[in-house]
Design a protein that fits this description.
With 422 residues, the chain is an alpha/beta fold. It is globular and about 60 Å long. The chain has a domain at 282-418. The relative contact order is 0.16. Helices cover 22% and strands 28% of the residues. It is built from nine helices and 17 strands.
């Protein structure tokens, strides 16, 4: 249920963004509906394809956020997906921004659809050339800084059969504007053998197609015999006007789907391949953290029985779901610690992630650090709105070896690097 239309203007260095939006009064579980300011800030992309960026406040990608707030958005978005959908169900998330979001929505949906599969797109080709890593399909996200996506299939015959028999596709992304990415994904999946799809549910934090005419007709024309639905926390429309004589932009080279020189460690299957259980691998990763935290040199700065007062957990690129679960675990430990000490001042735990997305500072992006990626791609990575000096402990989570991390991170005495066994 959408309320009345609201309007606002966002001025950025390269132009002006005019927004029209409506609050979804059904999007809120035991709390008030999400307002625009609850969900988004705004910034300037370093990207000639699109000059602006919607900066999510609930994804834990560009703005550090408490895990409980992230979890609430996952659950609230999943709640909007209706009951009684035809099964098998496939939940698919878009790399890199929505990988954690899709896993959270999938986990919430499994209370109603316990056999739903999760599968995320990826831009990291797998090193192993055996049959288990065979590509299912590829597709393009036209407006993105890194447009090419890979989708892998399963080595498990039962899982692969269920994947191909999928009748409902729940596509999860942080935002939608034109529906082109959704159409590209569905077309690629159908061409790859998912010919039994009956319904597609585009499930996004924000849907920017409000008021667009003919979009659903286009979707119906391109995707015949499929019922198409949209679910979102907020709906809107945008119009961008370039500033006079904007400075030209040179975008860093980040559009790669190569494997990189650094091998990926064993982190289980959290969605890069089709899975029923996105928590596969978390127990081992948690054990790695606990072992390294116990012997961490920076531990001397605080009592061994207490957590530091301010903790930031960082995922890296697409590897965000297990790090998020670690941040959530730390948040629960902080709450228990405060209760045990009979104090309301629990340690602060927040989550964010390294990214390949190039964004200019200003507006919602207050700070930016750049460094070389840990995958061995020779690619610049970034972290936004993070001043390392503000945190007592930064837990940097990677899926490659600890040695693969840029020297910038290794040189900080409050950074604990958690990596898997190789």
């Amino acid at each position: 249920m959408l309320d009345k239309q609201h309007n606002t203007t966002i001025t950025l260095p390269r132009g002006t963004l005019e927004l029209t939006y409506q609050i979804n009064n059904a999007a809120g579980n035991k709390h008030s509906p999400y307002q625009l300011d609850d969900l988004l800030g705004f910034a300037q992309r370093i990207n000639p394809k699109r000059a602006f960026l919607f900066v999510s406040k609930v994804l834990g990608r560009h703005i550090p956020i408490a895990p409980r707030i992230m979890r609430r958005s996952f659950t609230d978005l999943a709640t909007l997906v209706p009951d009684g959908l035809p099964e098998p169900i496939l939940v698919i998330g878009m790399a890199e921004t929505a990988v954690g979001l899709s896993a959270g929505v999938h986990q919430a949906l499994q209370t109603r659809y316990p056999k739903a599969l999760l599968l995320n797109s990826t831009r990291h080709a797998q090193h192993d050339d055996s049959s288990k890593d065979t590509l299912l399909t590829t597709f393009s996200e036209d407006h993105s800084h890194a447009s090419q996506h890979l989708i892998y299939q399963s080595s498990n015959h039962v899982t692969q059969a269920q994947l191909r028999a999928s009748k409902t596709l729940i596509m999860v992304d942080d935002e939608a504007s034109t529906g082109n990415t959704c159409m590209n994904v569905v077309s690629a999946l159908r061409n790859a053998g998912l010919t039994q799809l009956e319904q597609v549910h585009l499930t996004t934090l924000v849907d920017w197609s409000l008021g667009q005419t003919g979009m659903d007709d286009t979707l119906a024309e391109r995707l015949p015999d499929i019922d198409f639905s949209r679910h979102h926390l907020l709906a809107g429309a945008w119009q961008w006007t370039d500033a006079p004589n904007p400075e030209p932009i040179t975008m860093p080279s980040v559009d790669s789907t190569a494997a990189g020189s650094q091998p990926l460690g064993h982190t289980g299957n959290w969605g890069r391949f089709p899975t029923l259980d996105s928590t596969d691998g978390f127990a081992d990763y948690l054990a790695q953290f606990q072992q390294r935290f116990t012997s961490f040199e920076g531990q001397a700065a605080f009592a061994s029985t207490n957590l530091p007062k301010k903790i930031l957990v960082l995922g890296s690129n697409e590897f965000v779901w297990l790090p998020f679960l670690l941040a959530e675990w730390l948040e629960s430990q902080a709450t228990r610690q405060a209760q045990g000490q009979n104090t309301e001042e629990a340690s602060i735990v927040k989550f964010s992630a390294l990214t390949r997305s190039p964004i200019a500072t200003g507006a919602a992006i207050t700070t930016m650090l750049s460094f070389t990626d840990n995958y061995g791609l020779g690619m610049t990575n970034f972290i936004y709105n993070v001043n390392p000096d503000d945190w007592d402990l930064i837990v940097l989570c990677v899926e490659t070896s600890a040695d693969s991390v840029d020297e910038m991170w290794k040189g900080l005495d409050n950074v604990l690097i958690v990596s898997p066994t190789l």
